Prior knowledge:
Layout: H1 2-78, E1 95-99, H2 104-115, E2 119-124, E3 143-147, E4 160-163, H3 170-175, H4 177-198, E5 201-207, H5 234-252, E6 256-257, E7 279-286
Parallel strand pairs: 1-2, 1-4, 2-3, 4-5, 5-7, 6-7
Bound molecules: uridine-5'-diphosphate-xylopyranose (UDX).
Residues 99-100, 102-106, 124-129, 149-150, 164-168, 183, 205, 207, 286, 289 line the site of uridine-5'-diphosphate-xylopyranose.
Amino acid sequence: MVNKALQRLVSAVNRRRMKLLLGIALIAYVASVWGNFVNMSFLLNRSIQENGELKIERKIEEIVEPLREKIRDLEKSFTQKYPPVKFLSEKDRKRILITGGAGFVGSHLTDKLMMDGHEVTVVDNFFTGRKRNVEHWIGHENFELINHDVVEPLYIEVDQIYHLASPASPPNYMYNPIKTLKTNTIGTLNMLGLAKRVGARLLLASTSEVYGDPEVHPQSEGYWGHVNPIGPRACYDEGKRVAETMCYAYMKQCVLLPPFSAVAGQEAWPSERCSSECKGMGLLRSTVM
Ligand SMILES: O=c1ccn([C@@H]2O[C@H](COP(=O)(O)OP(=O)(O)O[C@H]3OC[C@@H](O)[C@H](O)[C@H]3O)[C@@H](O)[C@H]2O)c(=O)[nH]1
């Protein structure tokens, strides 16, 4: 009897324990499910938020990228690359004027002098020369391009003048013979005046046409030529002859001293008569015109 009562008591206690344990297990299970649910909803929220942010970032990127592209293009156009230029000390660096510097010979001379490290000013009326011949220097601190006709006086400070401004091929110089004459006479006088005023050396680009229809081949520097003053090419031939005469007159009066550069490196004119204080004068007769 006692045993049975004891067994009933134990089983009743066990049942209660079991219920308690089951209750605890249920609570634990519910808690863990709840925890997972909270975690999941947090993660879900985060991923939704991240997704949203990503979408916004992508949208911003889509708008900004073309703008960035435009900025890159602008930067490229501002930071133009120039051909390599030597560094020259202030003492060695010359301020050089090239008239007709946008033409064939002038633009190559511009390249050479720029790359040697000098300061170059190109003056041209673009009659036959083109801006594109020197455009690769535009904006360089050592370079300046002036649209100017040498028939008008020019007031700038320079150390050397290469006077090349003149139409050079028959159709061009015969197109307006009076203008060709003015360019080679008044233009040359203006450049000689400038050279005299600022104490600059001057080189005149002449032409083998100063020999006219020569009777001697090849022509030496001593040959005076065979020119028809009223022939169809006279405006150029005689214009350049007068230009040479004017340069020689300036040199003879010791305003300018010959030459700092001449045909094949030879002196075109004797220099004995000039004092050493005088500045330079040069003549270049091209033989290919
Ligand atoms: O009135 C004028 C005429 C012409 N010019 C310029 O002078 C330059 C002449 O160059 P071109 O390319 O026509 O000819 P080239 O370079 O071959 O001539 C070169 O060699 C021959 C010489 O007689 C020229 O004086 C010299 O410039 C051009 O840039 C032209 O626009 C002027 O600046 N003013």
